[in-house]
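Archive entry: two folds, one per protein. Generate the first.
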Amino acid sequence: MPRLLYGSAWKKERTAALVELALRSGFRGVDTACQPRHYHEPGVGEALAAVFSSGLAARSEIYLQTKFTPFAGQDPNNVPYDPHASLTQQVRQSFVASLVNLRVALVDGLVLHSPYPDDRDTLEVWRAMESLYDQGLVRQLGVSNCYELTRLDALCQKARIRPATIQNRFHAKSHYDQEIRAFCDQSGIVYQSFWTLTANVEILKSPEVADLAAKHERSAAQIFFRYLTQRDIVCLTGTSSKTHMAEDLSIFEFRLSAAECEILDALLLRSAP
């Protein structure tokens, strides 16, 4: 899994062009979902087909992650599965739709877009996802929008195929998921952050980040992304700017010192309520 993923949400008819631009710019990981409400998954498939046919990259070089989205998160007028079917069937129907949309035979990551209110429903969906894993159609499983450590721990204990990733909004209101991230470190789970810049405008404007940006001759966004990747967080970025795509990918050209990372650690602690 690359340490930066290109997020395809909210791009609608621009999805194909922007995902292709991201891949041509150097991104090798794409995040999407079978959720027409916020994602245009067929556009991701169009972009992948264009990149593969041009010889720019092989399928094996791209980390492709999609999601199963429960009915509560779908547009009720445009659901990619039968909402009256069992949860197991919903997962299967959604996944088949994803393979068709993405024009691939398997995906690298399948993520439960959010846990259900009832843990029994979450586990039923997880069992269906495990079945897809068993068939070799998915390389790893994950969960998103899970902000309660007790629920993540319970899923890990009951799962036959444990979550390999968790993708959460990274912001102060959730205390930057400090407990969940510590659990992930101990459990070998990769933590992915989304809304990383949008939810942290005050962090990006802070004197600490400004000082580091000036010292390293980088933007505030580059400093923050680099810090998080050095803390073993995989960051999603959904920029539509070719310039920002290049800047995001260039963060691996420099490295923050341990002391500089500790400055940002302290900044996050102060920012969390």
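Generate the second and append.
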Amino acid sequence: MSHTLSIKHLTIGEGAPKICVPLVGKTHAELIEETKLLMSLDVDLVEWRVDFLEMVEDIEQVKSVLIDIRERLKDIPLIFTFRSAKEGGEKELSSGAYIALNKTIIETGLIDIVDVELYNDEQTVKTLIHSAHENQVYVILSNHDFEKTPPKEEIVNRLKRAQELGGDLPKIAVMPKNARDVLILLEATNEMKECYANRPIITMSMAGNGVISRLAGELFGSAITFGAAEKASAPGQIAIHELRLILNVIHKNL
């Protein structure tokens, strides 16, 4: 199986990590302005963090906003993410509402990737992965720990589990308390890449201590890094132009 994943013009898993930037507007109007700004920047992918949207419980309204975002993004791949409060997001939805929102959006054909949280009920995960793959949508199967950095073996096991369940892009983000925690994340990333992964993976150590992990993905094995246009969606995201500059320097010297 290929270790790369191709979406539109983009090949994820080769060369420098691809830069993804979040849309975090609370209203339809804010999101349109944000999208216009992103189109003027050097981004590879866009992630719509729909949990920031005030009217996220109204699926028809979400679809209406999505149509406008997709039209403006043109050929830039779009990730659709409802991040639950328990994993650092803005809101919580019931399991039924979470499934309904994601399935409906998957079936529009307007997104390229959907983010599904690994620690949902396993049947929920399998249902959404099946729906995504039926509709030619890739799946980021994600896990976030905003409290700590688990042991290396645990990080690797979570990434392996996401791969076993059928996630196209296993993802983990952890919180470091010190430099050693950042090294644990980087070691786990490298081990997953070298020993187990048969697809691209996404890893990061958050906050200031973890910034190096957002830059060194090409060396250690993380295929996507998240930058900020105006407002960050997670601790430690850095500005796109700085991110691109550093990624290019690393890429030219590897």
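Annotation attached to the second fold: The mean pLDDT is 94. The longest helix spans residues 179-196.
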